[in-house]
Amino acid sequence: MLNVKRLAYILCVVLAVSLAGCSSKKKKEPQPMKLEKLTQEVKLRKEWSTSVGKGQGKLWNTLTPAVDGDRIFVADVKGKVVALDRFSGKRQWQKKLKAQVSGGVGAGSGLVVLGTLSGDVIALDSTTGNELWRVNVASEVLSAPATNGDVVVVQTQDDRLIALEADTGQRRWIYENTPALLTLRGSSAPLITPYVVYAGLSSGKVIAVELERGLPIWEQRVAMPSGRTELERMVDIDGQLLLKNSVLYVAAYQGKVAGLDEETGRILWQRDASSYVGVGQGFGNAYTSLEAGVVESIDERSGTAMWSNEKLLRRKLSGPAVFSSYIAVGDVEGYLHLLSQVDGRFVSRTRIDKKGLRVQPLVVGGWLYVYGNGGKLVALTIK
């Protein structure tokens, strides 16, 4: 469990993000860069929208929606879980859990899985919303559990990976890791395949673990602590990992953005970066939202920047999502920005939730789903 001193550090880092706010209560944090007017080159169609309770809540939660088949599942911090038809937005069921949700949502193979601040992992039937099982893993769960139908894997705040039987919740194995002394609040969600689970750790490492017995396959460091203070030495992988075409994409805070070989962990390319959100990929490029508010396109062959958009500085960006020929990214004031994959110019902007957009947009089959901090869930397509 976190001690009080460490928790205070984490909360300070979260509130400031840039770390400047930890030095003095009187010192004002720099304001987000003002948005320039733009010509809407691309028109978005709002297919439907709905409100989901309290949304992300006051803590730095990243409660991501999940799509399985024709349904989208979403939860709020107070334990409200909703299943909707992803094309019409029609509610199919709603469940109120007696728990404070901090890790969610994972979905697949008939299950909806969530984690809580008290360390519970909860599995629901995806068709009815009925609770199937609930297991305590003795530590906060700050990211969505993952399932392949055979096993549910959860990553705890103290960097343990725990595999639970999907049908009963019984523990299959536990993989211990030593967490960093100081971390950002949050953790990367495990990424699961039929035989392997990948995870990003607070130590700046990515690991691959065999699913059947929990045996290590490989580990790779993408961030190396450096500096004289604990704050300067803090490295963390909080953003969602992405696996595409046998390449595992990862971004680390005060580290690198990199592409790793799926089977060996070998670094295929890398670039110095500081990011606490996920990575997008398309057109042979990787896309990342840097801590400072820069959106960057990286050539996967050379690791060099193809373009950088610096007009969203200090806007605390979400992870980028590839949507058609564009990059979708949210900001602290609730605006969704579309950027061209070719040159990074803005092509569209719309405001989704005045309380901000922290969660990486979700793209499924030509539909874009955006979940705001205040609980607004919107489905968009391109006109």
UniProtKB/TrEMBL annotation:
UniProt keyword annotations, A-Z: Cell outer membrane, Lipoprotein, Membrane, Palmitate, Signal
Membrane topology designation: Lipid-anchor
Pfam families: PQQ_2
Top-level taxon in the UniProt lineage: Bacteria
Listed Gene3D superfamilies: YVTN repeat-like/Quinoprotein amine dehydrogenase
Localization annotation: Cell outer membrane
Domain Pyrrolo-quinoline quinone repeat span(s) in chain numbering: 78-278, 292-382
Its biological purpose: Part of the outer membrane protein assembly complex, which is involved in assembly and insertion of beta-barrel proteins into the outer membrane.
Subunit (UniProt): Part of the Bam complex.
Family of the protein in this entry: Belongs to the BamB family.
Protein name as it appears in the record: Outer membrane protein assembly factor BamB
Organism: Thiopseudomonas acetoxidans
Lineage: Bacteria, Pseudomonadati, Pseudomonadota, Gammaproteobacteria, Pseudomonadales
Gene name as annotated: bamB
